[in-house]
Amino acid sequence: QVQLVQSGGGLVQAGGSLRLSCAASGRPFRSYAMGWFRQAPGKEREFVASISGNGDTTYYADSVKGRFTISRDNAKNTVYLQINSLKPEDTAIYYCAAAKYLSYGRSYSSESDFGSWGQGTQVTISS
Fold it and tell me: What's the rounded Cα separation, in Å, for the pair 55 and 30?
């Protein structure tokens, strides 16, 4: 079973930047895709970005393309989400997730393909 521990987040002004981190343990990190999801108040959790195990394939939600960047450091068993040009509507709890299936060369955008979740971290954007 994989364990995911998130760090980063907090209160940021609109237009600012933030980096979220998620450290994984418990299984070969590079063999599995990783993803980021978020849940805003009163809304369902939604897909944000994902990255394949080898880091070559990434997917982004349309709402974050050009502003968010997902990356991973397989030597450190860590996945990152760099968030730029923050908007108030980016306010949410952000969750990292690990894919259920071996996914060295592919990734996913459906929540059902991810089986392990981080504890969540609050990101609040002030206008």
Answer: 9
- Residue 86, pLDDT above cutoff 90: yes
- Angstrom distance (rounded) from CA 9 to CA 27: 25
Answer whether 9's CB lies under 8 Å from 19's CB: no
Q: Which two tokens stand for residue 56?
A: 């070559």
Written as one string, the DSSP assignment of 50-90 is: EE-TTS--EEE-TTTTTTEEEEEETTTTEEEEEE-S--GGG
Query: Among all chains, which residue has been given the structure tokens 């980096």?
Result: 19
Residue 7, phi then psi, degrees to nearest 5: -150, 165
Tokens of 29: 């990190």
Q: Are 33 and 50 in contact (CB under 8 A)?
A: yes
Q: Give the phi and the psi of residue 92 in degrees, each rounded to 5.
A: -175, 170
Is residue 1's pLDDT more than 90?
no
Q: For residue 96, what are its two tokens? A: 């990292």
| Token pair 């459906």 in the structure block, residue | 110
